[in-house]
Amino acid sequence: MNDITLAGFPLDLLALQLVTGVALGAIYVLVGIGLSLIFGLMNVVNFAHGAFFMAGAYVGVFLYGYTGNFWVSLVAAPLAMGLLGLVVERVLVRPLYGRGIDDPLLLTFGLSYVMVESVRIAFGLTGLPFGAPPELRGAVDIGIGYFPLYRLFLIAFSLVVVGALWLFIERTSFGLVIRAGARDPQIVQVLGIEMSKVWLAVFGLGCALAGLAGILAAPLQGVTPEMGIPVLAEAFVVTVVGGMGSLAGAVLAGMIVGIVVAMTSLVAPDMTKMAIFALMALVLLVRPRGLLGRAGALG
């Protein structure tokens, strides 16, 4: 296989880069699902989503340094961001319901700056180094070459999380309420279900997924106060390409964007950012609602 080339690159290198794209796509999927959940049910564009991603990474790194246990930080970081999300929805976002999409957008935009500056004050400007835990270091032979063990774990763990979330949305009574509320919240309220509690839970869940993605991404890129800024833009690309409010679309688009980023960084590194926005423009030209988007749907 080493002797076979495509566009001047050995096929085994392209295959390894493809798997790298899947690992990167796993991060995009988790961030994109959280953003899609919040928008699909609440019609709130959460501009603080990248800040929750960043804060989750910092909480995880801090707890890892305190406990020495990566698995504790992996559980605690999304829980902390989920709890923070509950507070943000209850205190800041809820009073703005009914005012249109602009007010929550501006509020969360300002909140993201507050969160970033707070982290800078607490932890400094330079960021924190963070490597994979000892049990997930090294590389394994996957048949096409050696691949980092942590990235394989990232792919497998994200698959489990997405599967569990799908079962929750599709197979539980609360998931049924979420899907029904995304289509027609007035009818759900007529049936006696208090949508404010559903919105609270969904906003917290979306923020928890962002925090989980942050701690999972930390060993790949380090931890800095600005790490959520590019992720926010990429999460919006994933959400738009997949279809606003479509969870299946977020999964598909996250994988596509991750692979596009990985392959472009191999062939033309300077064009990586441009490639994902060109992808978004192309999809919107062909399918204005995204790959799997449909009006008033969450699924």
How does this model look, in words?
The chain has helices at residues 11-42, 49-67, 70-93, 102-123, 149-171, 173-183, 185-190, 195-221, 228-242, 247-267, 272-286; strands at 5-6, 9-10, 139-141, 146-148. The protein is mainly α and 299 residues long. The strands form two sheets. The protein has a two-stranded antiparallel sheet with strand order 1-2. The chain has a two-stranded antiparallel ribbon with strand order 3-4. Strand 1 and strand 2 (9-10) form a beta hairpin. Helix 1 packs parallel to helix 5 (149-171) and helix 1 (11-42) crosses helix 9 (228-242). The protein starts with a strand and ends in a 13-residue tail after the last helix. The model has no long low-confidence stretch (mean pLDDT 87).
Strand and helix map with partners:
Elements: E1 5-6, E2 9-10, H1 11-42, H2 49-67, H3 70-93, H4 102-123, E3 139-141, E4 146-148, H5 149-171, H6 173-183, H7 185-190, H8 195-221, H9 228-242, H10 247-267, H11 272-286
Antiparallel strand pairs: 1-2, 3-4
Helix pairs in contact: 1-5, 1-8, 1-9, 1-10, 2-3, 2-4, 2-8, 2-9, 3-8, 5-6, 9-10, 9-11, 10-11
Strand order of the largest sheet: 1-2
Strand content: under 5%
Secondary structure category = mainly alpha
Please give the radius of gyration in angstroms.
19 Å
Number of E-type strands: 4
Kindly, what is the distance between the CA atoms of the first and last residues, rounded to a whole number of angstroms?
Answer: 40 Å
